[in-house]
Amino acid sequence: MKSIRVISGIVALLLMSLSSQVSAVAGDGLVRDVRLWTAPDHSRLVFDLNQKIEYKVFPLHNPERIVIDMERTQLKANLNSLQLPDPVVQSIRHGKPTSGTLRVVMDVKERVQPRTFLLKPMQGKPYRLVVDLSRPEQAKQAAMRSGESRAKKGLVIAIDAGHGGEDPGAIGPRKLYEKTVTLAVAKELAKIVDATPGMNAVLIRNGDYFVPLKKRVYLARKAKADMMISIHADAVRQRNVEGSSVYTLSERGATQDRAARALAAKENAADEVGGVEFDTVDDPMVTQILGDMFRRDSLNSSQILAESIIGKLKHAGPVKYSAPKRARFFVLGAMEIPSVLVELDYISNPAREKKLKSRDHQKKLASALFNASVSFFQKMGRLKSTPDQAMLPADSATALQYAVSEQGL
Ligand SMILES: [Zn+2]
């Protein structure tokens, strides 16, 4: 094998010297695109590659830099297109330390630990080299903000905007990304929740970056959420399909519903598209065995929450299934927290895509999710009911009338 590589290397060199005008020699690695995603606790640089390459990543100090050496690779992307500086990366440049080697140097603002991995082609994405720069200090602070140190006031709703960063989710005919819609609706919902006395929102994702599924579950647990809503938008080939659907966790995954099973498989693939190298999240709860009764109780609560959401979504737009469905969604893994996954609509339907893009409709959807949450908490005896429950306004300013009961806090 080694000799073959050496020979092919020599051939490549010969070819290169023979035709210096040729921009790329067959067999060479090419960086075709580059993207930078900024998350609260790390920045992620992604290189699109035409093939698998050999690479090395290492830090240099005084000043702090991260060096990425890609063997037999050429740059065909524009590094100047990156939005810089970001909280970690000050600037980025490239050079050729030796013939054939592409060196990318990032000037970083503080000492950071790089973590790199190569992603195989999948769902239309090519080979990708991922370089994660996590910030120990900021990471700690971010964790503290969303975690235990945050005094728990009232009921906490974990709002999970599906996909993000490298993972666009479903893409509409007019190129609207699922990740954009989910974040917009999540933020609208958080606004209403946070303006409601006795309620707090925790946004699992707060920008355009990817959060691994396991980490989403972990963040909801860390925030001691009383409920979790994972927001998505579906897509199918037939463009006329429309309507929302709501899902809860199927414990064993042995769901009879093929469509639900296919959907879960699609949503569960997010980690591979978004880019997860290995388990970077340590969640002791995952290994904890939950008692049967406890689990059943929580699954029942999720069912009630799901029904409540369908009831309210009916007023915001078409509903695909009038009853919740079940499948094994990884993101619903916190079995002690009532959790649902909502597919807001079909982004593959041009008319619905247009709706999903509209700010007014996003607000309408967020209000429906909020009203459903309130009615769920009331049913569970955790919020006091008022006589005009159905009149709960979309704008939460008047939701002040809803006093949080002492019970369950
Ligand atoms: Zn999705």
Automatic annotation (TrEMBL):
Signal peptide start-end: 1-24
Documented EC number(s): 3.5.1.28
GO molecular function, one term: N-acetylmuramoyl-L-alanine amidase activity
Residues in MurNAc-LAA domain copies: 217-374
Catalytic reaction equation(s): Hydrolyzes the link between N-acetylmuramoyl residues and L-amino acid residues in certain cell-wall glycopeptides
Keywords: Hydrolase, Signal
GO BP of this protein: peptidoglycan catabolic process
Coiled-coil region list: none
Keyword set includes Cytoplasm: no
Pfam families listed in its UniProt record: Amidase_3, AMIN
GO cellular component, one term: outer membrane-bounded periplasmic space
SMART domains: Ami_3
Protein name: N-acetylmuramoyl-L-alanine amidase
Organism name: Mariprofundus ferrinatatus
Lineage: Bacteria, Pseudomonadati, Pseudomonadota, Candidatius Mariprofundia, Mariprofundales
